[in-house]
Amino acid sequence: MKKPLLAFTDKGIYCHAADVYLDPWKPVDKAIISHGHADHSRWGHSKYITHHDNVPIISHRLGEINVTGKNWGETFTINNVKFSLHPAGHIVASSQIRVEHQGEVWVFTGDYKTEDDGISTPYEPVKCDTFITECTFGLPAFKWIPQQEVFKDINAWWAQNRAEKKTSVLFGYSLGKAQRLLKYLDTDIGKIYTHGAIENMTEVLRPLVDFPETTLITKETKKEDLLGNIVLAPPSAHGSPWIRKMVPYVTASASGWMTFRGARRRRAIDKGFVLSDHCDWNGLLESIKGTGAEKIICTHGYSDIFSRYLREQGYDARTEETQYGEEDGETADAKSETIGTN
């Protein structure tokens, strides 16, 4: 029986013909990496291949590694198997991985979104026979509104807090979401302060993206300095001693799981903005249609529900287990909500 071009193993997604893994979760010899989030780019591989803009990102996170950078659409061959990287639109330098061998083409998306966020290279559909898609928000309840409307609301929220002489604390993951938020904050309202984790990652990305000026919060930062201004912080900072110097402050979080009623209250967040770096329901369906693929493999997220829907639409769809979904928190948070409570 012919082996599939890509197989799901206990180490990760494996291409037997090339003896290489895609986003493996256990140490391997050769790894092709889709993007910089920790669940997709892990420490311990002997050789890394990724998009060249992702090289400084994973080097910052992982330290000294043996890594090779590739351009969009550049074909590289390993043991007669052709590989190329194509924009995924998830975060800066995020890639889909195209694999071609003996007339068969598979595409692994990693994580992706179809909305152009203005800082990531926009998602491009890639024709293939088999499409491996995430399903983080694979429910009809998830339908994003255009990001310009979300940022209008975020800046209005900040302006209102400034008028009330309160500090605005906006939570976003340190790689990806934080920079997307930063890019569109209105500096006419006030200054942008950052948590160290966000400041450090933003400095890595500044050569690639034109961001507004930020000020790192240090031990010398006074509460009076922050009043009326906005602070970008990772979710882990919520409820920590670090945030106490922000008093009086108002908190907000930007994530797809804010779609669900009660999510903000359960996480003790004052305000929720629905903004995700993953596809919504329509984005997933449009992406799949755009590939022309007949076989769909659904991974992390609402994979069972989504694959069942695809089968009802005539696709040859199934699910596979992976160890993705931990880094940006949205997979775990979305799945923890009760279906039907939105």
Q: Give unreliable regions as ranges.
A: 331-342
- State the major sheet: 7 strands, mixed
Shape: globular
- Give the number of domains: 2
The averaged pLDDT comes out at 93
Instruction: Kindly provide the name of the CATH class of the largest domain.
Output: Alpha Beta
Content-based structural category: alpha/beta
Structure characterization notes:
InterPro entries: MBL, RibonucZ/Hydroxyglut_hydro, Xnuc_lig_assoc. Keywords: Exonuclease, Hydrolase, Ligase, Nuclease. 23% of the residues lie in helices and 24% in strands. It has 342 residues and is an alpha/beta fold. The chain has two domains: 7-142 and 277-336, 4-Layer Sandwich (Metallo-beta-lactamase, Chain A), CATH 3.60.15.10; 147-273, Rossmann fold, CATH 3.40.50. The strands form three sheets. Strands 7-8-9-10-11-18-19 form a seven-stranded mixed sheet. β16 (249-254), α6 (263-266) and β17 form a beta-alpha-beta unit.
Protein traits:
2 domains, disordered C terminus, 6-stranded mixed β-sheet, Metallo-beta-lactamase, Chain A, 24% strand, alpha/beta, 342 residues, 23% helix, single chain, Rossmann fold, 7-stranded mixed β-sheet, 9 helices
